[in-house]
């Protein structure tokens, strides 16, 4: 089931779109706190965003730019500001399509279906993992914290992915080593310790202190 996030401050329009898309089998959420759009985007991890231009606090162009720092998820602008300048601006800011208000819900559904087919027919669905404000993008193996990208090695990414997928649970050293080095070659136990230490240093320098907790005799975790 594809997840769609609607960023629209007109409750009547937002709810009518939500009801229509849910009837087509989509999982739909509405933005209610227009100061916390990115937080809800990360938590919900949608496969498509419907974005109005005229919004409280900041406009849709701003939020499109913020989302593009984290994800390549398709964004369709929906707006009554449908002059050529706004359409061009929407595309230049990272939008994938533009639907002018008022619109036919059948046309909206058709565009949503077409974009989802193009975006996900030949690739896995993008996903985000979040912990303490750090966002791990599984589609491009990047880590973003406070609008800055933390450079990760292949093992850095794998370690963070394992721990963030198991947030609140201890991952044993044996489990970690099996996931990191599954090619049956012998790997010294100290190799994992070195990798964890290097990753911790990198996270500390980015401001993510005590991001990974050691449970002596058990393994590692990130707290829930």
From TrEMBL:
GO terms for cellular component: cytosol; protein-DNA complex. One of its GO terms (biological process) is regulation of DNA-templated transcription. CDD domains: REC_OmpR_NsrR-like, trans_reg_C. It comes from the Bacteria. Pfam families: Response_reg, Trans_reg_C. Transmembrane segments: none annotated. Residues 126-224 form the OmpR/PhoB-type domain. SUPFAM superfamilies: CheY-like. The modification 4-aspartylphosphate is found at residue 52. One of its GO terms (molecular function) is phosphorelay response regulator activity. The keyword Transcription applies. Gene3D superfamilies: 3.40.50.2300, Winged helix-like DNA-binding domain superfamily/Winged helix DNA-binding domain. Keywords: DNA-binding, Phosphoprotein, Transcription, Transcription regulation. Residues 126-224 bind DNA. Residues 3-116 form the Response regulatory domain. May play the central regulatory role in sporulation. It may be an element of the effector pathway responsible for the activation of sporulation genes in response to nutritional stress. Spo0A may act in concert with spo0H (a sigma factor) to control the expression of some genes that are critical to the sporulation process. This is Stage 0 sporulation protein A homolog. It comes from Acetobacterium paludosum.
